[in-house]
């Protein structure tokens, strides 16, 4: 029997709609995975630089400059609030820029006992010693929040087990020691 | 006219009569056939392949409902931290973006409707914050249940994350 026009229309239309929806999902998923890969690469670069600094100096970080008016700000790198702060050897600012991390805030921080309550000594399975490194990851609050949340979930899947801690839905910590141990 | 001619003439007329009767008899069945409804060909159906149509819609539906069944961007979890600390984190996030804008452009934004088109960054707050450019920088004000949190350029941003109540005052 020959195909009528209505036959062709009723067969082609649902297949075309299904194809378009699937193609869009693949495109969106690929874009998010690509951004997650970029964030993961930056985390790996930071981990390698910190490990290299420690291998060369015996210390995770440079000594704290206690003369700074805000000692706490020395605990965070990259500190966009103080761009004149001393550059941490081996680290590149570009690895921390939010435009290079899919809109996520990525910061390297050193554990300081007085920094509680956000980060406590036993935040992770392995207790922190003074000056141990960790990463802070923050996602936004507006229209891009679902995308950033999904990207962060993808990043989390690529991190070592137990290295991710959720402070709240917009604030996460990564134990950089675990990331370094995983890569070495 | 001779008798033979008349006879031929009669034969001719008889032949003519017989042929007209035969024609009528031949035409009549054809006419009868056309007049009868049972003799018409059935009209062509609109659909010849219903199974293919059903299969196509089933396949299309399976793909079409995927965004509902398996969304790429899942629903966000409910917030569990104290709302003041959530507000402090949001203000930190906003201040971080403003400082990033300053790093890229060398100045603070006049208002927060501008987007970093070049870098695909936008002012993505929940709408609870008020930004004001100041002569020496800027201020961000967040409001929550009769309290006002104010952060100014130069203040310690870490306080927003750890103990935002330090910057809180009654809402005026």
Description of the molecule:
Chain A has 184 residues and is an alpha+beta fold. Helix content of chain A is 41%, strand content 13%. Chain A has three helices and five strands. A five-stranded antiparallel sheet of chain A has the order 1-2-3-5-4. In chain A, β4 and β5 form a beta hairpin. In chain A, α1 packs across α2 and α1 packs across α3. Chain A is elongated. The termini of chain A are far apart. The model of chain A has no long low-confidence stretch (mean pLDDT 85). Chain B is of the alpha+beta class. Chain B is 47% helix and 13% strand. Chain B has a four-stranded antiparallel sheet with strand order 1-2-3-4, with helices on one face. In chain B, β2 and β3 form a beta hairpin. The longest helix of chain B is centred in the first third of the chain and has 33 residues. The mean pLDDT of chain B is 76. The interface between A and B is large, with 55 and 52 residues.
Oligomer: heterodimer
- Total number of helical segments of chain A? 3
First and last CA, distance of chain B: 138 Å
Low-pLDDT parts of chain B are: none
Question: What helical percentage do the residues of chain B reach?
Answer: 40-55%
The major sheet of chain B is characterized as:
4 strands, antiparallel
Q: Kindly estimate the percentage of residues of chain A that lie in beta strands according to DSSP.
A: 5-15%
Unreliable stretches of chain A, pLDDT < 50, 5 or more residues?
A: none
> What's the arrangement of strands in the largest beta sheet of chain B?
1-2-3-4
Write down the secondary-structure element order of chain B.
HHHHEEEHE
């Amino acid at each position: 029997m020959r195909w009528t026009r209505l036959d062709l229309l009723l067969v082609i239309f649902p297949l075309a709609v299904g194809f378009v929806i699937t193609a869009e999902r693949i495109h969106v998923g690929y874009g998010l995975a690509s951004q997650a890969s970029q964030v993961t690469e930056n985390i790996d670069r930071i981990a390698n630089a910190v490990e290299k600094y420690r291998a060369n100096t015996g210390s995770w970080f440079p000594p704290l400059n206690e003369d700074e008016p805000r000692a706490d700000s020395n605990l965070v790198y990259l500190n966009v609030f103080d761009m004149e702060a001393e550059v941490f050897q081996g680290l590149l600012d570009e690895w921390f820029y939010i435009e290079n991390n899919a809109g996520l805030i990525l910061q390297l921080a050193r554990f300081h006992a007085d920094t509680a309550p956000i980060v406590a000594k036993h935040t992770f399975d392995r207790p922190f010693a003074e000056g141990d490194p960790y990463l802070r990851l923050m996602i936004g609050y507006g229209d891009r929040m679902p995308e950033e949340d999904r990207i962060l979930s993808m990043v989390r899947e690529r991190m070592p087990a137990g290295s991710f801690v959720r402070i709240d839905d917009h604030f996460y910590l990564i134990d950089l020691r675990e990331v370094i141990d995983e890569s070495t | 006219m001779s008798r033979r001619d008349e006879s031929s003439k009669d034969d001719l007329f008889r032949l003519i009569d017989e042929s007209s009767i035969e024609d009528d008899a031949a035409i009549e069945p054809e006419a009868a056939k056309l007049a009868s409804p049972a003799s018409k060909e059935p009209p062509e159906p609109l659909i010849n392949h219903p199974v293919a149509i059903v299969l196509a819609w089933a396949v299309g539906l399976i793909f079409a409902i995927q965004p509902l069944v398996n969304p790429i961007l899942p629903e966000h979890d409910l917030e569990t931290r104290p709302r003041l600390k959530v507000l402090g984190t949001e203000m930190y996030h906003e201040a971080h973006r403003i400082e990033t804008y300053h790093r890229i452009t060398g100045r603070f934004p006049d208002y927060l409707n501008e987007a970093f088109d070049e870098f695909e960054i936008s002012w993505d707050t929940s709408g609870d914050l008020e930004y004001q450019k100041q002569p020496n920088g800027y201020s961000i004000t967040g409001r929550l249940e009769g309290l006002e949190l104010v952060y100014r350029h130069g203040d310690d941003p870490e306080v927003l994350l750890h103990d935002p109540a330090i910057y809180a005052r009654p809402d005026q």
